[in-house]
Design a protein that fits this description.
The protein has 13 helices and eleven strands. By secondary structure, the protein is of the alpha/beta class.
Length: 332
């Protein structure tokens, strides 16, 4: 893949320093979380591109622990919001409280005013609460009592949902799902990882992450990500992938036509390019490759592909469609 390189990996001395900071974060989170490297890397991709992520997995896979551990390693403020059917928008964003002593209203900020916000089981709250959170994600401000308050920087929302329990839930509409850069699917650990998890829980005190990167350093890491090159061939490759979700027959994928109701929007192309930049940055490179795009494409596409009832009847999910597209779309 040398033809995609902007220069030898790590040729910029500054990139070496930034990469050491990334490795320090990974190592510190790894002291607490056994395995789940794919989840940790994708959380870092969301953080370093100033975006948000939706995490899906059955209970007990350390989703909440991974998010809180990352916040501690980054010296970030952290808040966890447990979404329930009786939650109100003011419980998330904050409200005005009347103080009879001075006969004035005072702003009480909600838990959304944190660097890392865990929206636990986001699909358990009704649409008005989801909308309040997602508006804050997009605008990065919150309006309380006619006043607009900026959210802290960095501001990262990591939402979780349980894929096996649908009773009493409020699925996120597709337009709101599109606000999340990534939808990360968390799987069960491998056998040896399971043994290590069991050993840690029985034989020792659970370790706690320590701050290894100051909050101010995140801005420098983001600058490093933006400096990663995405050359013209990679840009064309990303455009072809996006086009294949809308007109699969043009890419010798006519069998997907009856399975796809709507393809992805231009936002998906932007997110895919940005995610590939961050993934290359995590690997210590100053250039992206097709492998970076392929690695992150399922996470960017799976919640944006709108499938037909025929796809559901055949048992075809968005991951399978994304895989067929990546197998068929050639690198220019």
């Amino acid at each position: 893949m040398a033809q995609f390189a902007a220069g030898p990996a790590g040729s910029d001395p500054r990139s070496h320093v930034l990469h050491r900071e990334v490795e320090a974060i990974r190592a510190e989170v790894g002291r607490v979380i056994v395995g789940q490297q794919g989840l940790i890397d994708r959380l870092l991709v969301a953080l370093l591109t100033n975006n948000h992520a939706l995490i899906e997995g059955v209970p007990g896979l350390a989703k909440t622990l991974a998010v809180s551990t990352l916040a501690r390693a980054l010296e970030c403020s952290f808040s966890r919001i447990q979404f329930t059917p009786d939650l109100l928008p003011a419980d998330v964003t904050g409200t005005l409280i009347y103080n009879p002593q001075d006969a004035e209203f005072h702003t009480r900020r909600g838990p959304i005013f944190a660097n890392v916000v865990l929206a636990d089981e986001i699909n358990r709250a009704p649409a008005k609460v989801q909308s309040a959170l997602l508006e804050a994600m997009q605008e990065r401000t919150v309006s309380i009592g006619g006043q607009t308050h900026p959210l802290p920087d960095p501001f990262l929302v990591l939402a979780t949902q349980n894929p096996i329990e649908q009773e009493g839930t409020y699925p996120l509409p597709e337009a709101q799902l599109d606000r999340f850069m990534l939808k990360i699917v968390v799987h069960y650990p491998e056998r040896e990882q399971e043994r290590e998890i069991l050993a840690r829980s029985l034989d020792q005190e659970p370790p706690q992450a320590r701050p290894v990167v100051a909050l101010a350093e995140i801005a420098r890491l983001r600058e490093g990500v933006r400096a990663v090159e995405v050359n013209e061939r990679l840009r064309e490759y990303i455009v072809r992938i996006v086009e294949a979700t809308r007109e699969p027959a043009r890419f010798r994928l006519a069998e997907l036509q009856p399975l796809l109701e709507f393809g992805v929007s231009p936002r998906a192309a932007i997110f895919l390019a940005r995610a590939a930049q961050a993934y290359a940055f995590l690997d210590g490179r100053t250039f992206t490759t097709p492998e970076d795009v392929k690695a992150l494409a399922p996470d960017v596409l799976r919640h944006r592909l709108i499938l037909t009832y025929e796809a559901e009847a055949r048992g075809v999910d968005a991951d399978e469609v994304a895989t067929r597209i990546l197998e068929s779309v050639g690198i220019p």
